[in-house]
Write a structure and sequence with these properties.
The structure is a single chain. With 414 residues, the protein is an alpha/beta fold. The protein is built from 16 helices and eleven strands. It has helices at residues 3-11, 106-116, 121-128, 132-148, 194-206, 223-232, 242-261, 270-275, 284-295, 299-308, 310-314, 319-336, 344-355, 357-361, 371-386, 393-404; strands spanning 17-25, 32-39, 44-46, 53-69, 72-85, 89-92, 157-166, 169-177, 185-190, 216-219, 237-240. Strands 1, 2, 3, 4, 5 and 6 form a six-stranded mixed sheet that branches. A five-stranded mixed sheet has the order 9-8-7-10-11, sandwiched between helices. Helix 7 (242-261) runs antiparallel to helix 13. Zinc ion binds next to loops. Residues 47, 49-50, 52, 85, 87-88 line the site of zinc ion (ZN).
């Protein structure tokens, strides 16, 4: 086997294409291996629209970046014909080693996609020695195509949550299939609130789903989501995730603590102690700060005691028990609450729970795990890291799909 045959095999070339020349450019750093590919003289080529064999109308030269040949960058150059089909006119043909419009070979793109499944895009771009911007274009192409193929025909229960691509702005809303333990992401869309629910409905229909079959939607307590879900999915029971109830009170406690810290000196460790999950592990300093807090008559202590009682509600083992505990919780909280406006965040949280109590109670009748939405936080964090350096709504959404949507084989042939 001569070198041409070895390289031809490596490129996956099939007739009429063959390798006709190779040259190593040692003036460039790193060195560049240039492979010249050409079709046999007089070959016929398929019209890109109908596939009919046509004579070449004319040729133009193109170059594609191919996988490195050892440490050398490798390029393929070929004169690509345009066909002159009686029906479709003069069109540039698609070459078998690259997809239409790409300046990389399919093998190069496949290798790139293998890397981005395992590591941040920026790191993958450094390994294959292209800019991250160009790699993002490849990733967005393949992920976008795989998302088009998603099948939502069996979806009956969805959860949704919002997160920021960057701190404090550029929100995306993510929809997941509550019946899928692995790779549950179905849809990622910019924004937060009502219009995202309408876009999900359209996406569901385009992908074989039936809005009337959606029996349960789990979301947070934002009024916009709840109203939109009710209007959009008429047969769905709306469940408020317990995780969001805890989050609401954690935020309220922290707001009280911050306001109070301006008036009184509070232990430093208190900040993280009140932010941690009720059953999370505390450092010694945090545990001491909490013990001091519990013994104190600070406003923060009142807010904390109310929040701590949520655990007691969650442990209820039936809807009836939970309903009774929520009522009891509201009454007990009202007794504890001081009229000082510094406790307004807690009053607001209690009012929100009152408004949504039916949807909160729904979790006791739901057959779906409430841990799913909470688990999304880890996914969002991972996606932010993978998209670092070039993070915007589009790249963030692409990475969420790549990590957590059931996309199947990303580079299967078109
Ligand atoms: Zn044609």
């Amino acid at each position: 086997m001569d070198t041409n045959s070895v390289l031809t095999l490596g490129l996956g070339l099939t007739p009429p294409w063959r390798l006709v020349g190779q040259r190593l450019d040692t003036d460039k750093q790193p060195h560049e291996l240039h492979l010249e590919v050409a079709a046999e003289r007089g070959s016929l080529f398929p019209c890109p629209t109908c596939g009919k064999s046509c004579k070449a109308h004319d040729f133009a030269e193109f170059t594609w970046r191919h996988m490195n040949f050892f440490q050398h960058h490798c390029y393929i150059t070929a004169k690509v014909p345009r066909t002159d089909c009686g029906e479709h006119g003069v069109l540039r043909i698609n070459v078998p080693w690259a997809r239409d419009g790409s300046r990389f070979t399919l093998l190069f793109e496949q290798a790139a996609m293998m890397l981005v499944r395992e590591m941040p895009v920026l790191a993958a771009a450094r390994i294959i020695e292209i800019t991250d911007k160009r790699l993002w274009r490849i990733v967005e192409h393949y992920v976008g195509r795989a998302v088009e193929r998603l099948d939502l025909s069996r979806v009956t229960a969805v959860g949704l949550d919002e997160t920021a691509a960057k701190r404090g702005h550029s929100y995306v809303t993510v929809f997941i299939d509550l019946d899928r333990a692995n790779k549950p992401v179905l849809f990622v869309t910019p924004g937060r609130g009502k219009e995202t629910v309408a876009r999900f409905r359209a996406f569901l229909v385009e992908h074989g789903g039936t809005p009337d079959r959606i029996a349960e939607v789990v979301c947070d307590m934002s009024g916009a989501f709840v109203a939109a879900v009710g209007e959009t999915f008429e047969n769905a029971a709306v469940t408020v995730d317990w995780f969001h109830v805890v989050q609401l009170f954690t935020k309220a406690v922290d707001e009280v603590r911050r306001a109070e810290a301006k008036q009184n000196k509070l232990p430093k460790a208190l900040r993280w102690a009140v932010l941690k999950r009720a059953d999370g592990r505390l450092t010694d300093a945090q545990a001491t700060a909490l013990a001091e807090l519990e013994a104190s008559d600070l406003f923060t202590a009142i807010a904390w005691r109310i929040k701590e009682k949520l655990r007691w509600i969650r442990q209820a083992d039936s809807v009836q028990a939970a309903r009774w505990r929520i009522t009891n919780f509201q009454r007990h909280a009202a007794e504890l609450l001081d009229p000082d406006p510094i406790l307004d965040p807690v009053r607001k949280a209690l009012a929100t729970v009152q408004t949504h109590s039916k949807r909160i109670l729904q979790r006791w009748s739901s057959s779906h795990s409430n841990a799913r939405l909470e688990g999304l936080n880890g996914l969002f964090q991972a996606a932010r890291a993978r998209a670092r350096g070039y993070r915007n709504i589009a790249t963030f959404a692409t990475i969420i799909y790549l990590i957590a949507a059931p996309l199947g084989d990303l580079v299967e042939s078109t």
